[in-house]
FAD dependent oxidoreductase
Amino acid sequence: MDRAVEKYDVVVVGAGAGGIAAAVGAARTGARTLLIERYGFMGGAATNSQVLAYCGFYACGDTARQMVYGVGQELLQQLKSLGVDIQPIVSKSGYWIIMLDPEATKLAFDRLALQNNVEIALHSRVVSAQVCDNRIRSVTLADHAGLVTVEAGAFVDASGEATLSVLAGVPLTLEGGADAHLQPSSFPVRIGGVPDGVEFDREIMAGLIAQHNETAEMPILRADGGVMSRLPLTDQFWWMAIDLETDGITNKSLSAVETTARELAWRNLEVLRRHPGFERAYLVSTGPQIGVRETRRPLSRADVQEVDVIEGRRYDDGIGRGSWPAEVHEAPGRARFVDIGGDGFFDIRAGALEAAQVDNLRLAGRVIGADSRAYGSVRVMGTAFASGHAAGVSAALASQDGAAEIGLLRKTLLEQGALV
């Protein structure tokens, strides 16, 4: 059943890090803002894929230098109020990260959105977009009650899979699909049943994995055991040792990879139980979905380039900082990191958030314009808060005046506490 048309100033698709930052940033300009999410909760990869670490809030170095503030910092404060330790730690890769609790993250997103008068549409999918004269006029949402048309002056694609961009006809620099070379996806899990004080010994685990892989039908590709870290609040472990290839968009590919990942999680658990102290380990939770790194990328008006990352380039039209190295997963179980040059961060230009050929569409999170190497840096959640915040403010300004002048955009972001 179709319902009456709803009207907003800004509509944001996807309620992960980029989406929440976009929605809050837009709402704080006075724009009536709708945030659309296909799940029954917000949080993006942190909550729907168990990616329980924020990367990109801090630059690499002996001391933690924070590079993302604004809405991202306010989300961290919401987590802190719920008892999560938001102090950064050094990850296995040698870079600063913030560990998360998934349930606290869900509630923190709820509170941040509702306290800023963001209207939320959970359990909703965008199924079409109506475009006229290079502008999106409306989108159609589907929920269990049927279809509803939503009109707005400007839109933000924070969907991760570039869903709105594809529906609106934005040209793609990476189209995805079965023939594309994509970074593999990962399937993190939560592990319980490990007593306090038990430490994960990587050398012991590597030996257990090597023994297992000698005869395993489905070997563990991260030979050292992957990422294993204690989580805040619950004292459970976060374990990321499963990497699989998928196009990330078709039901055929995703169905195959999800079922395979769950099978691997149970088989890998048997190997983990041979590690001293992990004898009674059990699987607390997986997914709702596998953690997808890469599918499709829309073309923007100023894509972030590899040279921006390598040289740590600064720009007069910068609207946020990228400080996570270019993390490129070349194949399942194999990743490399390319450090950022200059002062350890680079500027994301305003044009990277502006979709090519669709004037009132902004891009946020891992949907922003970037080449294949730079994408490995900008896709992470900490940086997504920065790009999303700017995308939301830019969309709000575009909905009011038809354009988002860079000086006003930067001024508004600074007034909202962002670092540009």
